[in-house]
User: What shape does this take?
Amino acid sequence: MNRQNNNQNSEQNDNFFNENPLLAFGIFILIMVILFKMFMGDANLEGVMGDPRIKRVEQVKYSDIKELIKKREVKSVKITSTMIEATDLTGTKKYIAKNVPAYDMEFIPLLEDNNITYEGQVGEGPVARYVNMLLPIFIILAIWLFLAKKMSKGMGGILGAGRADKLISSERPDVKFDDVQGVQEAKDEVLEIVDFLKFPERYIELGAKIPKGLLLVGPPGTGKTLLAKAVAGEAEVPFFSVSGSSFMEMFVGVGASRVRDLFEQAKKVAPSIVFIDEIDAIGKSRASNAQMGGHSEQEQTLNQLLAEMDGFGTDTPVIVLAATNRPETLDAALLRAGRFDRQVLVDKPDFAGRLAILKVHSKDVKLADDVDMETVAKQTAGMAGADLANIINEAALLSGRRNKKKIEQAELLEAIERAFVGLERKNRKISDIEKNIVAYHESGHALMAELTKGATRVTKVSIIPRGLGALGYTLHLPDDEDRFLKRKYELMAEIDVLLGGRAAEEVFLGEISTGAGNDLDRATAILKDMISVYGMSDVAGLMVLSRSQSSFLGGGMVSNDYSEEMAQKIDQSIKNTLNERYEYVKKTLREYAGAIENMAEVLLDVEVIEGDTVQEIIIAFEKENGMESRMAHLKESEDS
Ligand code: ADP
Ligand code: ZN
Assistant: This one.
């Protein structure tokens, strides 16, 4: 949902062609047409020369032609802007004189006196000559402008290299705080900025120091940009936004001049807000850059930014908001007092937050009566605001395609599923042999999920290929509140479920496939974390062995500081545990062989089964064989 209208880009006309690509293109085409015509004109002339009757062409001086005319050795003459051609009496030979004097008043009378037929070329005369001279220049210019425009899309332009006009977008957003949900703490933090922007005099008179910079920190899509816009929207001030990565140019110094420009514009219309997205692109710690050979462009840009922020006093009501999801990489200089000395966490929303965000985004769509947003909010644990907005939109698209008048719950749930596992790829052909493998593999996961205490229950099992890699999947949607802690037995349960796929292949098909690669990878990672991060093993005890330096995305650097000996022990322990669990899982699958066979059969038949069906199959099998039910959730409810 895009709520920004009145987008008033601050353009200068030196970038005229950049701003009017269509016009530039039109002019370009026009010039090409003129050029084409010109050449065609010349081509006609060549055509005469290529006349089959002409046997010889001789280049002569202008004076020679005049001489020939006087001697009456010429039948006809053609005068063009660049040359004069004379055809001899037999019509088989042609004399051509280039370098023709511009003003020879005698020439035409000479032709007439000698009764020689002559013709001229259109566009004759001095004006035409100048045009002819200038045309190539125009053409080159047009091509250049055209290319420059094209390139400017990719990297900021050659023409306007120093100007940030195109990259800085200025608007007066009508986003309000009510549009941003699920980030109450962050909203509270920025509230005082709104007041300052609205009534700067009050604060200035008091001599209060207002923060100049505020860093919004959080994972992508949580609404950092939206919040910054809402600040501008609430305060009704202009909002200048630019992305940190757009400062990184191939020419040194360009970024710095853009920063200067940005602040110049913002100060002109203060009070205003400057928003720098992805500030880590310029604000990367200089120390970390030095390792990589340094980057003087980035350093200059960063220095300029620091200079600008130091440059205006606390009485200039320009506030710089910046966003990043990697605060730990930022240069310390950026975080110093008087710069981005305040950090505000914009985190992923909890249940109530998700519900509120879903409501905001479903304001403008038509919902059927059966829609239950609470269920949607429950099933989207871990998603950011942008994902939620996307789910509503995806559901609307689905409903449209199905020609429904309103969005129903089914579409919402399907949209969630898509978000988790990607698009169904019904067209992708998989062989029956592979289908068989996938059916057993997924049945193995599903059975373990149902029988293991602490595992999330199965919502759906499918053997329809999805997304990029998955040939099938077992979907477990968290059905309770947000979870911030995982207990040890839950992690172990996750490992058992992950091993279920491979184990089923081995037990029921006698052959293992590459399909379990991802499962094993994840199982290994869980065990490694249990040992080295969470202190849940005998190997390292409570000692933490690796420290992830990034709090978001998990993409930060991991530093391992332990001995080679410890490393070996960890590896051995992971391997042993995996083997142990694998044997246990295989044993369980053998005990439930009939259930797996049934499940795989149904799957091969209908391709997708719901969690309820999985549970029914297992319970029916247990009853048939007089077994006491091991269904985890049944046991759990007995326990409590
Ligand atoms: P970020 O800047 O943190 O990456 P954005 O602000 O660009 O995220 O979010 C993208 C879109 O997702 C927003 O325009 C909005 O539609 C939606 N969105 C994200 N977070 C929220 C939120 N907290 N409340 C409402 N909508 C949100
Ligand atoms: Zn699997």
In short: Residues 1-17, 41-49, 153-164, 549-557 have pLDDT under 50 and may be disordered. The CA atoms of residues 72 and 114 lie 7 Å apart. The chain is about 50% helix and 10% strand. The pocket of adenosine-5'-diphosphate (ligand 1) is lined by residues 1, 180-183, 220-226, 323, 357, 360, 385-386, 389 (CB under 6 Å).
